[in-house]
Amino acid sequence: MSDENNEVNQEEMADDWAAAMDEQTTSEADESEDDWAAAMEEQATTDDASAEDEWAAALSEQDTVDSGISEDDIESAPLEYLEDDSVPMDEDNPNLDVIMDIPVTIAMEVGSTEIAIRNLLQLNQGSVIELDRLAGEPLDVKVNGTLIAHGEVVMVNEKFGIRLTDVVSPSERIKKLR
């Protein structure tokens, strides 16, 4: 019998607890809505008044500045005229000597693929990523991200190298630069 009374008391306590929590949540929600409404109204009133004050001050300052300056007080700054001393470039035969010493990055691309970030984050040692290129296909040779040739991997003095099998013509490469 004491077990039954204990279960009934626990159920009544649980019901009382749930009712108290509901009452507290409802009153807090009403209070927070009232607080938000009051804060928003106060902000709107303050913003409108301060914005009008700022505009009025700026306009009166501008009127004061404008009325104190005459055209005689304004000095023009001296301007040096630039002359174009450059020589027009011959489009058929451009002078590339000026760029010959600029370093560039050359890269060999085996292949590529697109994967979701979710899958990228799941990669670990031993993971295999399928590329868009078949085994035995030539690699892309890119200079600063621009395709200039295709080639195959070779070994030269215990180092990897690439034998170019198909090169984009110089005129095509120059067209891609423009």
Q: Can you describe this structure in just a few lines?
A:
The chain has 178 residues and is of the alpha+beta class. The chain has helices at 2-68, 117-121, 170-177, and strands spanning 106-109, 139-143, 146-156, 159-167. The chain folds into two domains: 1-72; 97-177, Surface presentation of antigens (SPOA), CATH 2.30.330.10.
Keywords:
Surface presentation of antigens (SPOA), alpha+beta, 2 domains, 4 strands, 178 residues, four-stranded antiparallel beta sheet, flat
What would you say this structure looks like, in words?
The chain has helices spanning 2-68, 117-121, 170-177, and strands at residues 106-109, 139-143, 146-156, 159-167. With 178 residues, the chain is α+β, with helices and mostly antiparallel strands. The chain has 2 domains: 1-72; 97-177, Roll (Surface presentation of antigens (SPOA)), CATH 2.30.330.10. The protein has a 4-stranded antiparallel sheet, with no helix packed on it. The radius of gyration is 39 Å and the shape is flat.
